[in-house]
TrEMBL record:
Record key words, sorted: Acyltransferase, Transferase, Tricarboxylic acid cycle
GO molecular function: citrate synthase activity
UniProt KW Kinase keyword: no
Pfam families with a match to the protein in the record: Citrate_synt (PF00285)
Organism: Fibrobacter succinogenes (strain ATCC 19169 / S85)
Gene3D superfamilies: 2.20.28.60, Citrate Synthase, domain 1 (1.10.580.10), Cytochrome P450-Terp, domain 2 (1.10.230.10)
Family: Belongs to the citrate synthase family.
Taxonomic superkingdom: Bacteria
Catalytic activity: oxaloacetate + acetyl-CoA + H2O = citrate + CoA + H(+)
Presence of keyword Transmembrane: no
Protein name, as recorded: Citrate synthase
Length: 429
C-alpha cells in the first residue's frame, strides 16, 4: 500500500501521508491540509476522524476485539483485578507484586474524603441525580488537593492523585447513595478489597450489617474491568479535549463524567434496564416488541442493541452474559427481566432487520441486570459506569500530557450563517 494519498484540488495535487498503526489500521494525515490548501475536513460527529495516536486500547468493531495494552478483555475479565487493570491502563504494563502492593496501599490510604466535603452530600437537593453529585464532588476534591508545583514532584504527585481519584470515586458514589436514602455514611475499611469496600459502603448500616458475597465481588470486579476503557469515545474525548487546555486532572475527569451522563453514552445502561422493565410490566409479547422496534413511526426504542463501533457481537456483552449465568445459578435467584433479555436477544439474532443492520447486544444489555442483582439502584447505573471508566480517562489524560506533540484541541467548522449585514437601529427593526 502506498504511503501517501493524492488530493486533486483547484488544479493542483497535494500529497497526504498515510499513517499505519500497529494493528495495520490506516489513516490519512490531514494535519497540514488547511495550511497547504486552505481546506478543512467536514466530518459530522468525528466518525471518520482520528484525533490522536494512542497506545492504550485497541478496538476492532468488525471482528469484535477489545484489548487493553494488548491484553484481551476476555483474559482480563477472567484473571485480573480492577486495581491491576487500572495500573495496566495508566502505566502501560501489568504491575509486579511490589507495584500492585504499593498501589493497593495507596488506594487504602486515600479512600477517605475531607470531612468538609460531606456537606456537599447533605445539602444537595432531594432527588438530585447521583451523576450530578459525582461530577460536583470530584471537581471539589481537587480543591482539597495540593497542585503539582515543580518538575521533581510531578511523577509522585500524579501517582498519589491517580490512586486518590480511583479510591475516592467509590466513596463519593456510596456516600451519594446513602445521602439519597437518608442513611448515615459508612466509611471505607482498610482490610477490605476495592470491590468489597464499595459494596459495604453502599449496603451496610449499624442495624443491618452487610457481608458481600464473593460472587458479587467477582461480578463487580468484572463489570468495572469491561468498562475501564473503550478508545476515543465521547467521554474520553471530552477528557482529552478539556485536558488539552492544561486543565487539571480533576476538572478533566469532571468533564468526562458529565459527558458520560448522557443517555446516548453512559446513560444507556439505565435506559436498557428501564426498557426491560417497561416491556415486562406492559405484558407485550416479544413479537410485539420487535415490531415496535422496527417501526420508524413508533417512538419506542429498543435500547441495548447496536454500537457505533462494533458491527459484530460486543465482546464485553459476551463476558457479561457468561458472568450473568454464573451469578444467577450461584445465588439461586430468578429475575424476570433476565427472561425478557434472553428472549429479546434470541429474537434479534434471528431477525433479518437486526442481522442486516448488525444490531447485536452491546455491553449495556446485560450490565444493568447484573447491577440489579447486586441491589444497585437504577439511577446509580451510570455512576457505576463512571467508576469503571475512571482508569481509562486517567490513562488518556496522562498519555496526552506525555506526548510532546500534543496541542490544545481546536476543531474547525464550515460557517453557514449570514454574510455581513448592516446594523439596524432599534426604531427601524
Amino acid at each position: 500500500m502506498s504511503d501517501t494519498a493524492i488530493l486533486n484540488y483547484d488544479g493542483k495535487k497535494y500529497e497526504l501521508p498515510v499513517v499505519t498503526g500497529t494493528e495495520n489500521e490506516h489513516g490519512l494525515d490531514v494535519s497540514k491540509l488547511r495550511k497547504d490548501t486552505g481546506l478543512v475536513t467536514l466530518d459530522y460527529g468525528y466518525l471518520n476522524t482520528g484525533s490522536t495516536k494512542s497506545a492504550i486500547t485497541y478496538v476492532n468493531g468488525e471482528k469484535g476485539i477489545l484489548r487493553y495494552r494488548g491484553y484481551s478483555i476476555e483474559d482480563l475479565a477472567e484473571k485480573a483485578t480492577f486495581p491491576e487493570t487500572a495500573w495496566l491502563l495508566i502505566y502501560g504494563e501489568l504491575p509486579n507484586q511490589e507495584q500492585l502492593s504499593h498501589f493497593r496501599t495507596l488506594l487504602t490510604e486515600n479512600a477517605l474524603l475531607h470531612e468538609n466535603l460531606l456537606h456537599f452530600f447533605r445539602e444537595m437537593p432531594p432527588g438530585a441525580h447521583p451523576m450530578g453529585i459525582l461530577s460536583s464532588v470530584v471537581n471539589a476534591v481537587g480543591l482539597f488537593t495540593p497542585r503539582f508545583y515543580d518538575d521533581e514532584n510531578i511523577a509522585s504527585a500524579f501517582e498519589l492523585t491517580t490512586a486518590g481519584l480511583i479510591s475516592k470515586i467509590r466513596t463519593i458514589a456510596a456516600f451519594a447513595y446513602k445521602a439519597s436514602i437518608g442513611e448515615p455514611f459508612v466509611y471505607p475499611e482498610a482490610e477490605r478489597s476495592y470491590c468489597s469496600n464499595f459494596l459495604n459502603m453502599m449496603f451496610s448500616s449499624k442495624t443491618r450489617p452487610y457481608h458481600p458475597d464473593p460472587i458479587m465481588e467477582k461480578a463487580l470486579n468484572t463489570l468495572l474491568i469491561v468498562h475501564a476503557d473503550h478508545e476515543q469515545n465521547c467521554s474520553t474525548s471530552t477528557v482529552r479535549m478539556v485536558g488539552s487546555s492544561q486543565a487539571n486532572l480533576y476538572a478533566s475527569i469532571c468533564a468526562g463524567i458529565c459527558a458520560l451522563w448522557g443517555p446516548l453514552h453512559g446513560g444507556a445502561n439505565q435506559a436498557v434496564l428501564e426498557t426491560l422493565l417497561r416491556i415486562q410490566q406492559s405484558g407485550m409479547t416479544i413479537e410485539q416488541v420487535m415490531a415496535k422496534a422496527k417501526d420508524k413511526n413508533d417512538p419506542f426504542r429498543l435500547s441495548g442493541f447496536g454500537h457505533r463501533v462494533y458491527k459484530s457481537y460486543d465482546p464485553r456483552a459476551k463476558v457479561l452474559k457468561k458472568l450473568m449465568y454464573q451469578v444467577f445459578e450461584r445465588e439461586h435467584v430468578h429475575d424476570p427481566l433476565l427472561d425478557v433479555a434472553i428472549k429479546l436477544e434470541e429474537a434479534a439474532l434471528k431477525d433479518d432487520y437486526f442481522v442486516e443492520r448488525k444490531l447485536y447486544p452491546n455491553v449495556d444489555f446485560y450490565s444493568g441486570i447484573l447491577y440489579r442483582a447486586m441491589g444497585i439502584p437504577t439511577n446509580m447505573l451510570t455512576v457505576m459506569f463512571a467508576i469503571g471508566r475512571l482508569p481509562g480517562w486517567i490513562a488518556h489524560w496522562k498519555e496526552m500530557h506525555d506526548d510532546p506533540q500534543s496541542k490544545i484541541n481546536r476543531p474547525r467548522q464550515i460557517y453557514t450563517g449570514k454574510t455581513e449585514r448592516a446594523w439596524i437601529d432599534r426604531d427601524k427593526r
